[in-house]
Amino acid sequence: MNALVEITGLPMLHLVLLGLITFVAGVVRGFSGFALSAVVMATALFILPPVKLIPILWFLEFSANILMVRNGIKEANMTVVMGLVIGSILGYPIGLSLTHSLPVETSKLVALCIVLTLAFTQILRVRLAFLATLPGLYGAGLISGVVSGLASVGGMVVALYVLASTAPAREMRASLVMYLTVSLISSLVFLISYGMMDRATIALGLLFSLPTMLGVAVGKQMFSPRLEPYYRPFCLSLLMVLAGTGILRLAT
Question: Which residues cross the membrane (predicted)?
Answer without folding.
Answer: 12-31, 38-60, 80-98, 110-130, 136-164, 176-194, 200-218, 230-251
